[in-house]
Structure prediction request, 274 residues.
Amino acid sequence: MKLRERRISRKEGIKKGVYLLPNLCTTASLFCGFFAVIKSFHGEFVLAAWAILLAGLFDMFDGRLARLTRGASQFGIEYDSLVDLASFGLAPGILLYSWALHDFSRVGWMASFLFFACGALRLARYNVQAESVEYKFFQGLPIPMAAYVVATTVIFYDQQFAIPPRHNYWILGMTFALALLMVSTVRYFSSKQFDLKNRRSFFILVAAAGAIAIIAWEPQIMIWVLSILYAVSGPLDELYWWIRQGKRPENILLEKVAKPITLVPKGPSKENQG
Prediction:
């Protein structure tokens, strides 16, 4: 009897460890976002930008770990959503204001706040829609990718000019554009449609390996280029379908892709936007 109780206790311990792993990654993402805010206040903008990029990696890993280990929980889903808002909404907004937008005074902090607020609305809208229907495409620019555009722009600008920008209207316009794209209905490519058993998806993975090699060649420039390309891919796709057919095709349901773990009670699903 005691031996059986010990076995049950060990199984419960392993189960708790499985649930803990994704949440540890989420906490690491939160730390990176907090670290980025601190470094922004100290004027170390490039370090803050790299911290936001690292937060994105942890955000990607926590979702993968939850699926692989079946360690998803309602607590983890809610926690992840809050962390995303802090690391990809608040941290980039403060970085933008401290780095470039403070010269615009009231307009500058309003732009930074709009980025933060639209990021919150983006997450809230996804949480509402995710349980009712799974889309082949993201609706609106994912908040981690908006944060990546901000972070890579800081890194690229520093690599080119080595000083923070002054009264840069391009960056001000970029901030407003990113905020509006997040709450728009513009479609963006989602990695959820990947089926590794599909031959076509295999070739996409090969292309991704080539992209990694290009990034390694000139990382400060190429990560910025790839981030910008993703941000503009949505509007360009909309323009393409508008010119070709006068309207875009409706979002396609992911019928052949494995559905995410369903929890009881039902709650908002994690937005895996990496």
In short: Residues 2-245 form a domain with the Four Helix Bundle (Hemerythrin (Met), subunit A) fold (CATH 1.20.120.1760).
